[in-house]
Design a protein that fits this description.
The chain is an alpha+beta fold. It is built from eight helices and 26 strands. It has a five-stranded antiparallel β-sheet. Strands 19-26-24-21 form a four-stranded antiparallel β-sheet, with no helix packed on it. The radius of gyration is 24 Å and the shape is globular. The protein starts with a strand and ends with a strand.
């Protein structure tokens, strides 16, 4: 919505943001594809009334929930442009950032109705591993190839060679795809996602590629509404997530072709250095055959799960909470620590009952994927 200082309020377009994980959006589209004429009219009338009553000035988004029985409930007003605003721009031709500046300068909007043409999707390209419950995956982007063609727009904050830090949000780019109809936008999305290539870190791209061919999200009959809802990923789609991890490297890959990042302390300063993977465990004897590097999938599964008495970190991150003390007795499922990376918290719980030993971490400490947090012994 746009509201100026002269009392004009305009609903620019509707959007749907049902495809979420952990209550955070992954895919958005405009216009909302499943609303009845009555529901859309209710949303528009309610949004205008809310903003006028509040005396709101600027760009903002009124959010609603539509229940399975059609009940419409008001959630909140986001008093800013949202991440998904490009899909509204693509189907209306309105530059929302420009309009925000015009409103701030005191200019009237100059229009009361906005025509919507076509359909647009936005795919958030996040540094997260869908096969590991969307855990964040900071690291260096070794290869980046962006798609192009009709209806394809990429808003990116990274280039090839950049290192994505775990201290910030996991989103590295947005892929926006537009077509004359929802079906055409889906076809273009499939092509664009197939062309998009990100190497060096795991991303949600495999998830997006799968979703745009899912009948629930992309029914073959364009007149049939999709059946995706805000908990669809963890209910209807959960079993398929494990197959969407990063592909294993070729069998001939060796340790010499892989690197590790190690944090060291020199003169009281903490530094991150890059070394050959084998060097961290003593390297290779002269003349010895190179060792095969484990696949990315096996590395992920071994580092992300507890083994015997050892509880290890499933990801690179920062300890933001330590819930137990050395020598404490815990039951299986008790909280041990909370990790944070890319603005997401990940609780790490005891994998077995026992006594906490060798607790090696404290609040504020940085850990790598696979780092030992503690031992839980009998």
């Amino acid at each position: 919505c746009l509201a100026d200082a002269h009392g004009n309020v305009v609903v620019v377009s509707t959007r749907d943001c049902s495809l979420q994980r952990r209550h955070q959006k992954l895919v958005e589209e405009a216009p909302a594809p499943f609303l009845t004429a009555e529901q859309e009219d209710l949303l528009r009338v309610s949004s205008v009334a809310i903003l006028r009553e509040a005396g709101y000035v600027g760009a903002g988004t009124c959010e609603f929930l539509v229940a399975a029985d059609g009940t419409v409930s008001f959630l909140e007003v986001n008093t800013r442009l949202q991440v998904e605003h490009p899909v509204t721009e693509e189907v209306t031709g309105i530059d929302l950032v420009r309009e925000q500046l015009r409103i701030a300068a005191g200019e009237p909007l100059g229009y009361s109705d906005v025509a919507v043409r076509g359909h647009s999707f936005e795919f958030r390209i996040n540094g997260e591993d869908p096969a590991a419950n969307f855990l964040p995956t900071p690291g260096r982007i070794s290869r980046l190839r962006l798609p192009g063609g009709p209806g394809v727009r990429v808003d990116s904050g990274v280039v090839e060679g950049d290192t994505v830090s775990g201290a910030f949000d996991s989103m590295i780019a947005k892929l926006i795809v537009t077509g004359a109809t929802r079906q055409q936008a889906l076809e273009r999305s499939r092509r664009a996602l197939a062309e998009l290539e990100v190497q060096g870190i795991a991303t949600v791209v495999p998830f997006h590629r799968a979703v745009v061919s899912e009948p629930d999200f992309a029914p073959a009959d364009p007149d049939q509404p999709f059946t995706v809802h805000t908990r669809w990923i963890e209910t209807q789609f959960a079993e398929k997530l494990s197959s969407l991890g990063a592909p294993a490297p070729a069998a001939e890959d060796t340790v010499e072709q892989h690197v590790e990042r190690v944090t060291v302390e020199v003169g009281g300063k903490r530094l991150e250095v890059v070394i050959p993977a084998g060097l961290a465990v003593g390297g290779r004897r002269p003349g010895a055959a190179p060792r095969r590097a484990p696949s990315r999938r096996s590395q992920r599964s071994s580092s992300a799960s507890a083994n015997g008495n050892t509880l290890a970190s499933p990801m690179q991150g920062t300890i933001v909470k330590v819930a137990v003390a050395e020598g404490a007795t815990v039951a299986e499922g008790d909280l041990v620590v909370v990790l944070e990376a890319m603005k997401m918290e990940q609780p790490l719980v005891a994998h077995r009952a026992g006594v906490v030993r060798s607790l090696v971490t404290n609040v504020g400490a940085s850990v790598t994927a696979g780092a030992v947090i503690c031992e839980i012994c009998d």
